[in-house]
Amino acid sequence: MSMLTNELVLERIGAMQPQALASSETGYDGILNVETTREQLVALLTFLRDDEELNYHFLTTLNAIHYPDNQGRELGVVYHLHNWPQNRRIRVKVWVPAGDEHVPSITSLWPSSNWMERQEYDFFGILFDGHPDLRRILNVDDMDVFPLRKEYRLEDGTRTDKDDRFFGRDGHEGRSFD
Amino acid sequence: MQVQSYFSQLDSLEGELATLNLGPTHPATHGIFQNVLKLDGEKIVHAEPTIGYIHRAFEKLAERRPYNQITPITDRLNYCSSPINNMGWHLTVEKLAKIEVPKRAQYMRIIIMELSRIADHLVCNSVIGVDTGALTGFTYMFQERERIYDLFEEVCGTRLTTNIGRIGGMERDFSPRFHRLLKDFLKTFPARFEQFGGLLERNRIFMDRCIGAGPISAQRALDYGFTGPNLRAAGIDYDVRVSQPYSSYDDFDFTIPVGENGDTYDRFVVRQEEIRQSLKIINEAYKNIPEGPYHADVPEYYLPDKPDVYTKMEALIYHFKVVMGEVPIPAGEVYNAVEGGNGELGFYLVSDGGRTPYRLHFRRPCFIYYQAYPEMIKGAMLSDAILTMSSMNVIAGELDA
Amino acid sequence: MPEGYGGEGFFATSLGQAVGLARANSIWPLPFATSCCGIEFMATMGTNYDLARFGMERLSFSPRQADLLMVMGTIAKKMGPILKQVYTQMAEPKWVIAVGACASSGGIFDTYSVLQGIDKVIPVDVYVPGCPPRPEQIIDGIIKIQELVKNEPLRRRYSPEYQHLMEKYQIG
Questions:
Q1: Residue B63 forms contact with A (CB below 8 Å)
Q2: What's this model's pTM, rounded to 2 decimal places?
């Protein structure tokens, strides 16, 4: 069903938007993974969406991910785009350092990213510049931590009715890093 | 709770607009989400949704649990059709671990998934009926859902949150009672379903209520990331089962019903037609189900037979490792999508080779398309807004995860 | 002191039994359905398991008109204050049934965002475990509530123990 293979897609991106491509690889599941920088992100996504041949018109989902061990590239945002007529997917990744978690917002390109970006702000604390209404969406509004980051544990530490010893936990689950 | 930005634009009309808080506990909002509406008389001028009242942190919870223990979490996403979520998860892990599931298990999975799709659409359509005042259809269709529950109970033991199937196939073959119940269901359900359709589909009052309530154009639906019956009602025939067939869906011939205006009536009729198409698929799958094993021969991921566990050493070790969650999942990332009851349910799984996922992200269709709700009800009357919400089939578990 | 002469008094016991019988067989429930247990409740209300034969024909979604608060499903920390407000708005006498593992103790969701049991915010009379509980189990819980309602002394809501319970939860 797909008329362009991953190599041809890469060639086209390389031809039209060479500065946006930081690195690329074919992912484990066959989807092309493209990495870009946050300065080039909006330009690359606009190109992927508007180019007639590539035509990745649908934003499937976006999510963030936290690798506390990658110095300078701790937080990443992953965008999945999809071309329905030719059934091709592409994954765009952008990495930002912890402490400077600014990523441009793509709500001007796809309105569906509005709540998705709010969700990733809620979970990871990534600040999407240009988002019309960046506030917490799923957690309580006065929460001051970003719970899906690896340094926070899953359970509520203040609960009194469950004894961690019986669950085989010592209260220091999650990746430990100093 | 800070509510900012939008209300300040409307301050100039203050005094003429009424603020109405719809929810989170409200009989007609099926699920808990709040909408603060600004009303000009009866017409809605602005809506501000708040969600998260049932946020259970699935994505963080999945990082703690081994792969076979995540299935009960996926149950609780769209709990009206939990087998579809379960199968979607199993397919994702099988994609990552490169497990090939035998044909019989794939057909069994299709039968279970289509039955749960019927159950999900029955809830949605009955509830649209209830919200327009027609309670009878609800009582009759829930009787039919009980028969679907009986079928699920034969396979996996529970009715609603099924945890059905295993990584590599199904947990047991269809029992004789299942065959009996399924044959009976396939024989008697269509007639009763047509009675329900006859009550509502061409009912003058129902049509007057629903036609024109909460419309959305195809372009706006695409912008807002709609998938599933809501998008098909707007006119676009995208169905994951057809465009990226999984689990042998390409062996079956079924049509994708498509609407025109994307309003409540179109969503209702699209779901009705999808139930008929699902029945067609189940009939075909049941007639042509091949003989063979009901699970793949992957003892690293699938529990070995109990007699072997008691006698053979390797089986005992595999059993221990599977139960303790030490399955050899390779490192890598996959994205897998299935057609859930509400649209494209996607699983983005990042594994670092450990016993639990490193990151699991659910692409939840309800969460994505509910963003369009304020736009869909702008200018509509309050009763139309209620009807639009129930016809969008927003399941709180999938919305908040 | 022979029965009926002390405590609430002579006529009050028979009156209490009559009132209890009337109350028990005509409870107006408030279904506070949040998640999967809500769907099992809808099945319980349906024709196969039929909650209406226990007198619960009329569901009340307004707390002011309800007797029994049926909390079905997970209550997140965001929802806790709302649950408490709904409970406070109910008029005495009121009972609470926690349906499902999530309402009883947080269930499988031992996470930072889920309230580990609604008895952290409101007093509960009957807990129905299960995930989700079968309709028969929910009906069993309802029958236990009916037993509680039938045997409740008339002056219980004014007793010092009840006041102490309300103070512990900081209600009213």
A1: yes
A2: 0.92
